[in-house]
UniProtKB/TrEMBL annotation:
InterPro entries: ABC-2_transporter_component, ABC2_TM, ABC2_TM_bact-type, ABC_2_transport. It comes from Nocardioides iriomotensis. Keywords: Antibiotic resistance, Cell membrane, Membrane, Transmembrane, Transmembrane helix, Transport. Residues 22-251 form the ABC transmembrane type-2 domain. GO terms for biological process: response to antibiotic. The keyword Metal-binding does not apply. GO terms for molecular function: ABC-type transporter activity. It is a multi-pass membrane protein. GO terms for cellular component: ATP-binding cassette (ABC) transporter complex. It is found in: Cell membrane. The keyword ATP-binding does not apply. Belongs to the ABC-2 integral membrane protein family. This is Transport permease protein.
Amino acid sequence: MSARITLSVAGRVLHQLRRDHRTVAMLLVMPCVILTLLWWMFGDLPGGAIGFDKLGPALLALIPFIVMFLVTSVTTLRERSSGTLERLLAMPTGKLDLLGGYALAFGLVAAVQSTLAVTVCVWLLGLDVAGSVWVLVVVAVCDAVLGTALGLFVSAFAQTEFQAVQFMPLVVLPQILLCGLFVPREAMPAVLEAISNMLPLSYAVDAMSSLATTAGSALGDVDPEVWVDIGIVIGFAVAALALGAATLRRRTA
């Protein structure tokens, strides 16, 4: 794996994204719009109902993950079906160089996306966060990068953009249902709780929820379990990239 080639691939992807205004809008604006709509929807509920302060942290983990998964899987498939990946791999570009460049480019976008989403929620929508906002941003970025890595991985198994979208119910939906957003994970049946423990999104939601409820704005006040959760999410992202490199095909069949 060459750092120069990886950076070159990342630069090419960022250049393409800069010219695709619709994709940029979906990546950067859409999460903020969705979070604002949810805040508006939950804003007038009675005091005893679950409100935005309760669901907001989990949504900050979910929405960047979903958006990055969708955009990355479709974009990578489009590159392969157009022959771009085949031309790149015909040059001195390894699979890890290629996926590393894509992950770096989309990771930078994910960092901007997550920072904007957290900024909108905390400072504009008034999301009550007891813990460190900066660690909240870190968790959101890691979760968006996880969505990027999984999107790169599943794109190897799709032949059309429609098939790439079809992976969402298989890869994304079970994680949404079992991450603890609807039912606390410890209250689930034992089998579902065991499955939940094997899904990365569960740990991202746990970290977000802990930051929202545990007081202390300094890094030293952060619950050590949050760092463990972040490490698990990063580990899943690295594993997805490695599997993506192992299964990457030059073009669709």
